[in-house]
Amino acid sequence: MNERIFYAAISSDGFLSGPDGDMSWAEKYLASGEDYGYFELVSTSSAILMGRATFDFEIESGVQGPRPLPTYVLTHIPELYEDIQDENIYFTGGDISLVLELIQEKHPGNLFIIGGADTVSQLVEENLIDTMRLFVCPEELGTGTQAFKDDTVYNNFTLINEKEYSSGIVEEVYQRTI
């Protein structure tokens, strides 16, 4: 089975990031030493899909080195990345369903979707996410980048599992029903 799995940390009030893309609020949870199922997800996936802002955040945060999987970055301006010479990174754009077809053709299997909000919005609008693994942090941001435009996204999913971590994070796993 080829699943498209969205994996993200969100605040308790539904934000992926704070003002100006600030992710510092989430760093304390990453420092806990818990991997939150990341290794298992990487080891059972064939490729990663992320948006340009998420990719830029990784670069700015010093995430370097070889990618664990072929990584597709959605962008309308691939020329910004001419200097990146990594054979496992692909810059792509256009119709999201065609992008997913291309990824599936080249890398059959599960697709690990890291985000961000624009990428997820496109996938949700086209009903192209099978599973959402949301790590709800016990933190309210009040403003920033919302994970979803509104809560109606949950109408197409069923909560199938919950797990609480010692950090206070609650993992909610949703499966698409429609």
- Looking at the structure, the CATH topology is Dihydrofolate Reductase, subunit A
Secondary-structure element string: EEHHEHEEHEHEEEE
Silhouette = globular
What is the CATH C level class, in words? Alpha Beta
Give the beta-strand count.
10
Description:
The protein has five helices and ten strands, in the order ββααβαββαβαββββ. It is of the alpha/beta class. It has a single domain, classed as 3-Layer(aba) Sandwich (Dihydrofolate Reductase, subunit A), CATH 3.40.430. The chain has an eight-stranded mixed sheet. The longest helix is centred in the middle third of the chain and has 11 residues. It is globular. The model has no long low-confidence stretch (mean pLDDT 90).
Write the layout of secondary structure elements.
Layout: E1 4-11, E2 15-17, H1 24-30, H2 38-43, E3 45-51, H3 52-60, E4 71-74, E5 89-92, H4 96-106, E6 110-115, H5 117-125, E7 131-137, E8 145-146, E9 157-164, E10 170-176
Parallel strand pairs: 1-6, 1-7, 3-4, 3-6, 4-5
Antiparallel strand pairs: 2-8, 7-10, 9-10
